[in-house]
Amino acid sequence: MTFERRDFMRAAAGAITATVTLAGAPALAQDDPLQVALGDIASVESLNLLIAMERAGERGVPMEMTFFNSEDVAVQAVLSGEADIGVGAPYAFIQNSDAPIRMFYRMSTLLFFPVVNSEVYSGWEDLDGQEVTVHSRGSGTEALMRLMEEVHGIEYSNISYVPGSEVRAGAMLQGTINASIVDAANFRLLKEEGGDKFQRLPLEGVNATDEALYANTDVLEARAEDMQVFVEELLRTWQEIEENPEIVGELREQYGLLQDLPEDVAAEAVPYYTEAVENGVYPTDGGEPADVGDDIAFLAAAGQVTGDPAEIDPMDYWSFDLLEAAKASN
């Protein structure tokens, strides 16, 4: 997906395309390690996933993560068999290619902050006939703003594209734009620098997947037992973080994860997960069929997929067998 990432959390912990073997994973137990492809660099955003992988390793399911330079390359690695599991939400890829890959665990939901200069606008209705600024064409930021046009019965005069949440926040502070959409870090910056001058607009009814885990259907079948262990640990880890975000810092130390992160970035881990939990970024149920319709509606608004959400078959994009089995085993 082309959704803008939270740049302030994206400090590298290793070279792109480097492979990380998790400390808790026994060397080549009964099967080869499950290979996870991440189309990004390692950051504190990856910690919950890395913790779940460590825990799967402790239960006899070795896992490794390989970093690729884009989600497109990662999904090709999964399709070719170079990797077993991918990170992303490849709805468009599946729809356009009919590829035999399916999502099986919803890791996070999309979180952005539509914000206006309150000296100029006070609500969505004020943006009718006005210009708004988003990240890029076809991005999640554009999709959210397009959806709000429909929800509130308004029409923008123009949508401008300015890459970088921090760039858009800076432009708002300078007064060169008055309506945009930013990430959590830059909304916090706007409030710190501008106080009540900047107002967040509500996003009622928006439920869209940011990242999920997916795999080739052959892997889902051939490694079903190992994959179920992994999903059980994902559910466990997500629930523990929901109950106490500070556990992320404790488990990072316990497992020695992302040791190369700069200290100031590592220090953001607990605040990041605390804020994410407060905003419902990490669902604890792993996803359900109803979420697929919401995702299709959202992506259709961004022009990334086509189709009526009410008519799509969730099984064309997802497999819930592992998730249901994992929940039943608890």
From TrEMBL:
Keyword Flavoprotein: no
Lineage start: Bacteria, Pseudomonadati, Pseudomonadota, Alphaproteobacteria, Rhodobacterales
Subcellular location: Periplasm
Record protein name field: NMT1/THI5 like protein
Pfam families referenced in this protein's UniProt entry, alphabetically: NMT1 (PF09084)
Key words, A-Z: Signal
First-listed, main subcellular location of the protein, grouped into a coarse class: periplasm
A GO cellular component annotation in the UniProt record: periplasmic space
Domain SsuA/THI5-like per the UniProt entry, residue ranges: 59-246
Assigned protein family: Belongs to the bacterial solute-binding protein SsuA/TauA family.
